[in-house]
Design goal:
binds adenosine-5'-diphosphate, 251 residues, six-stranded mixed β-sheet, alpha/beta, 8 helices, 35% helix, binds magnesium ion
Length: 251
């Protein structure tokens, strides 16, 4: 079965009942890279949040199967332990918890689930340190509190560091290119490409062709009004880049 199979997914804002997702169908198989594009407000971020179980949204219909397992009634933490990773478009600050401690807790939670012994801080440092270097991050970064006072670019690098340390079967990356200069974008893209195997997959939301030139998508989807209205190959992204969303023929 596919890694992720979303069928007829509808979801609303819990507090107001306002419907945002209006019947999303999406299939992601192992080893595939999916790009989601679409105008502001089309529901791209909401889709990723609903997939990871963000508490502000309620699933009102449809199904989400991840590795054949129904995600809808699973807690966000359990979805994450099952191998789903999300980068937040505006990642949260976690006061009083250093990056190092946060990553160590996340890794040990996964090891515990797999019946492996917890890593100690020294052992873990030797795992995390080369990954920090690969992302050209200052090692002092690990001592800072999660996201506290990070610049936009630092947050994005940090999200990819989290992904490379924690690992994932499916990574949902929401605008990892926003606020990155060309060099930083290349570092982040190299790190993501370095994580790809025939077994794991990426769904990335982006407005920009330049990210798709660096991380080559297997499929590009266009979202509008809470639905995926068109799916194709990377030529769709080129078309949007040149002529805007209006240039995409819908049938
Ligand atoms: P995109 O990521 O494609 O720009 P979003 O998924 O962030 O779009 O938002 C889709 C629509 O749903 C927007 O009109 C947005 O204002 C609305 N929306 C999303 N989340 C909420 C929320 N928690 N409360 C109210 N409106 C929301
Ligand atoms: Mg947006
Ligand atoms: Mg968004």
């Amino acid at each position: 079965s596919p890694l992720l199979e979303v069928r007829g997914l509808t979801a609303s804002v819990k507090e107001t009942g306002q419907q945002i997702l209006a019947g999303v169908d999406l299939t992601i198989r192992e080893g595939e890279i999916h790009a989601i594009m679409g105008k502001n407000g089309s529901g791209k971020s909401t889709l990723t949040k609903v997939l990871v179980g963000h508490p502000h949204y309620e699933v009102t219909g449809g199904t989400i199967l991840f590795k054949g397992q129904d995600l809808v009634d699973m807690e966000p933490e359990d979805r994450s332990l099952a191998g789903l990773f999300m980068s937040f478009q505006a990642p949260i600050e976690i006061p009083g918890v250093s990056n190092f401690d946060f990553l160590l807790m996340a890794v040990n939670a996964r090891r515990e689930k797999s019946g492996l012994p917890a890593l100690g801080p020294l052992e873990f440092y030797s795992v995390v340190s080369p990954k920090v270097d690969a992302l050209k991050m200052d090692p002092k970064f690990l001592d800072r509190n999660v996201n506290e006072g990070f610049s936009g670019g630092e947050r994005k690098r940090n999200e990819i560091l989290q992904l490379s340390v924690i690992g994932a079967d499916l990574a949902l990356l929401d605008e990892i290119d926003s606020g990155l200069d060309v060099d930083a974008l290349e570092d982040v893209a190299n790190a993501v490409n370095g994580l790809l195997t025939p077994q794991n997959s990426v769904m990335m939301i982006t407005h920009y062709q330049r990210l798709l030139d660096l991380i080559k998508p297997s499929y590009v989807h266009i979202m509008e009004n809470g639905k995926i209205i068109k799916t194709g190959d990377s030529s769709i992204a080129t078309q949007i880049n040149e002529g805007g969303f209006k240039s995409i023929a819908l049938v």
